[in-house]
Write a structure and sequence with these properties.
68% helix, alpha/beta, 8 strands, rod-shaped, 15 helices, eight-stranded mixed sheet, 562 residues
Length: 562
Amino acid sequence: MNILDNKVLEKRKGLNDIIEDLKFILKTIKKDHALEEIKKRLNEPYTFMIVGEVNSGKSSFVNALLKSKELAKVSPQTCTDKINIIEYSNKPYEKELPDKYTKYIGRPFEILKNIRIVDTPGTNSMVTEHEKITESFIPNADLIIFVFPANNIEAGSAWNFFEKIVKKYNKNIIIVLTMKDIAKDEQIKINYENAKIRAKDKGKEVPVFITSSDLEFEGISDSGFEEIRNFILNTVTGSKREFGKLESLANQIRTLINSIKEDIYDRKNNLSNQENILNTIEKNIEISKKNSLNEVELWIKIILENYRNTAKKIKRKLEEEITLWNLLKRAFSKTQNLKILEDEIKDIFINNLLESTKQISAERSSKFIENIKNMLNRNLEELKNIEKNIDLKDMFYDFGEQRKKLIENTIEKIDSYIKEEKFLELIKEEKLKSINTTVFSGTGLSVLGIIIMISTQISIFDISGGIITGIGVMTGTLFAAFKKKKILRKIGKKFDEGEEIIKNNLESNLYGIVDLIYNDIDILFSDFKSNILKEKETVEELEKTLNRYIKKIDDYINSLEG
């Protein structure tokens, strides 16, 4: 019989596989270290401590129990003069600790993957340091085996150590009487009963087994080892005890997952708050853009209204001038001739119109810019609120750190955008790159004002030639007085055509500028938005994955109970 339960090994492997898969997932959020501790406990080999006097048969017993003649040294001399910890290793090694009392022995025996042997020096050869170090292994020992020769259990030092352990620790202990093949039957019977009585007197009733290592290696069934292995299976390594441990470890994994899920819940709330702030930022941009469009609409309306008023002045002037008497006077006057009339009309139409347009543009562009700056300042404050509440917990540190840097960069860009009016530089670069703007130096006009002036001026010069020339042709004879209504109607039509040209030029430029500015502003916040959405996606996917592992853990625990 094996002393390891295959069902336990199978279930242990199942839980180990869950841990390995989950560890890979939790590594991304720096929570895998908690699983390492659970895995370590899961895969800890059972610790069997062997205690007895010198030459009591401890090493032979260990070899026979674990079915390997090479595990522990067997020699007529006192071999175990140190505390030997025999454990699994791919390659054989022996490492003596600096205390000079402890030696670790690694051997590539499969059984050692699940069982670790603490082979103590003979109790009658222990020094104080031996005893202290031996005691340090007792709390983690799964089974303590006291070994006595079957023909002599009068080992005072071993019984003293037995009593000390019983008083201080509540541990699985058995007594093994070895070398029964060289003891008399009567001796064995007496010592068996005495060992039970002595153990009870020392404070604990324990099972007593009678064995022969030689008989075990010869394959004789009466070696006594089958009974020991059966006991170990039932009380130490079997499913009855170990499934409880596995369930406890599985519940620890579930507790860890639920703890992470609580962090995820908090994080989702945090992300929701950040999304709300981002929505507020986007709403601010949307409202600001709407205000800018309204401002542009009003701006164009005011300029066109100014244009119409100028056109009315010219029409009134012409209405006054196109009379038979006035035309006669201008025909024979050197100072008030028709050329002077043309110059007066030009002055009203071009110079006065451009000057009034400049004043309108200076005022409206200031309001246009102020609206954008106010929006950027509001969004700047919103970002600073997010920055104060960034969560830099271990599991979300990377996202938190990225967001912090993004916010810092965005705040810096917005601040520069506002102070240096970067959006105006953008417009200048895009809209004025092929235009010489030096003619407007010293006018006090902003980039937007210059664009308005250029749009208006070009439009005015486009239409003024036709209007002024028309005036000269139409009023160049006395017969114009008799065609006054027709002349004024034609000039009015020219003004209407001119208004449409100015309107189209202004709309094309100003609405294009609004799109240009707000597309650039959207870019300022785009990385931040992408970062939030990416983390939200990651967190939601992690939550789904953890829910699947909760189900796996529940199924695993149910399989233990079944």
